[in-house]
Every structure is written in structure tokens, then in C-alpha cells.
Records
---
Amino acid sequence: MTRRDFIWTAAAAAIPSSAQVRLLMPVHRVMDARAQCPAEQLHHFWSSIWPEAVRDFSQGGIELQTSDGPGEVRRSPGDQPIFIGLRRGVINLVLTDHIPMNWDNGRALAGVTALYAGYHVCMVAIRYAHGNQIPFVSVNTCVHELLHALLQDIFVSRPKWFQASGRELRIDSYATRLWLFHDGAAIRKSAQAYRDRLRSEVAARTAFDSSARR
Ligand SMILES: [Zn+2]
């Protein structure tokens, strides 16, 4: 090793891992126009829970690139959600007051992450959402749901992973490493693949649309 190589290697080692490769992740926030949330719950969410999620990801080298748009969650008679205002090629973070029965089997969940008609949706119930509480057990609701997307659980059909506590434990342990140790290396790797897949889905759809128009 030459002296120059040594200096380069030492300099690289001195840079914290989160500064080496920062990954941008597009998140489109949709506040459900029909949600009925008390003002203090909304305030707690925007002043504490969401900033904590942004900070946790940032410390692990992942920047959430946010956009906002109007939208709502309509409920069909069977309590199936009908989403308005979703975008392609992004994670749609839909903020509502409670998760529709049909999506959470009446368990009063704080969040659910799933594909909906090809859209990527993390739905968070503001009234049940919380910040980091207990390592490995109770972590920030937004971090938890976004990790279901970044770690690609979202592609596994819902009934299979929905009750699988193994996946929940895995998500909470990754979230804890992000929260306490600012370790996002493994998440970044998966998130990169996830983002590539998001982009290729959009490209495939655009190609399909333009060929259909011909
Ligand atoms: Zn979960």
C-alpha cells in the first residue's frame, strides 16, 4: 500500500457509514380528507412522531424525499378502503384516523403496508401511532411501516406475512438498530433494490400505456 492509498483508506474509514451512500426514498404523504383526528393527536404526529421517523432514517443514511397531495380513503359498504390521491413510483404514506376493518381484521392496528391496485401504500392511523418506546418491542409507527416497504415485505401477499410475527420481530429489530445505533447499512441495501423495482414498475407501465395508445 502506498502512502497515498493509506491516506485514502484512512479518510474513507473516518467517514461515518451513513455519510458514504445516502439513499433518497420518495414518500408521498396523503392526509385522508375524511379522517377525524383531534387537533392534539395531529399536532403530536407532526411535531414528534414524523420528525423522529425522518431523523431515524437520516441517521441511517436514508433521506425521505417527501411530497404532499390531497386525497382520501373512502370506505365501501364492506369497509374495503378505496384510495383517492395515490401516486405511482413512490411510497404513498396515507394518514387516516383508523385502519379500515377489512385491512386490519378489527385489531385496531396503528398501521398497515400493502400494495393496492399496484400502488405502494403505508397507511398509518394517527390515533394509534406512536414514537419509539421500547427497543425491539415498540418502535416508531412510521419507521415500522416504511420498513415493511423498504425491506420488501410489501411484495409478499398479505395473508402470509400479516400474522407472521417473525416479520414483525425482524422489522422492529432493524428499526431499533436504526434508532439506537444509526445503523442503516442493511436497510439501505434492500431499499436500493426496492427503489429500483419501484422505478421499473413505473417504466413498464409507461411503456404499456404508450403502446396501448398506438
Ligand atoms: Zn408490521
---
Amino acid sequence: MAGAIRGRCHCGAIQYQVNGELTGVIHCHCGDCRRWHGHYAAYAVASLADFEITQGSDKLKWYESSERARRGFCPECGSSIFKDNKDGEKIVLSVGALDAPTHLAFLKNIFEDSKGDYYTLPGA
Ligand SMILES: [Zn+2]
Ligand SMILES: [Zn+2]
């Protein structure tokens, strides 16, 4: 495959790379994601084994958004860059933080029943 996929927060203090495949883009409409991101979230999932923080791991902060998930963010700029579902296998990346070109495409919506009433489902 081509080189590693890279992502970073807005200010660049925290940077990471993925040395493997990502899933397609998953839009999560759950209340936790909408409140945390300000709108529904767009994610791609990678294997934790392929994931490496290349800069700023000492700065990274985690927010426990529920018993099943914690969200990694940059305390300098506030970017929500990934989510850990605490399964020990996967890391859920915010696709907006990825460097272009991502070569990713829409995969699916999840938690559609929790979607806001102010938009229609993407990708439909
Ligand atoms: Zn930052
Ligand atoms: Zn969600």
C-alpha cells in the first residue's frame, strides 16, 4: 500500500499515523458524538496495532464520555481527534483530522434513531 495515513489536531501539537487499512466513513448520530463534536461525527476505524502517536502523546488528554468510550483531544486547540471504545483492538479516528487525500468514502450511518431533527441522514 501507499505510505502511512496521517492525522493531526488543528494546532498540530498532536499528530499520529496509521500503518494499515482504515474502514470507510461511518457517521455516528448518537447524542454523545453530536454533543462532543457539535454535530454528527464522521469516523474511520483502524486497528490499534497499526496506530501510532508520532507527536504530542504527552499533551494528549482523554475525556471519559461514557463507561464504554473515551475521547482523545488536544488541550491546546480542543480538536477531538479520536475515540477509544476500550475494546483494546480498535481506534476510532475523526476523519476531519486526516490529511488529504484520504481516499475514503461513505460506508454507513449508525445510531440513526438518535439523530438530530435539524438534518437529513448523509449518504442516503
Ligand atoms: Zn491541537
Ligand atoms: Zn456516537
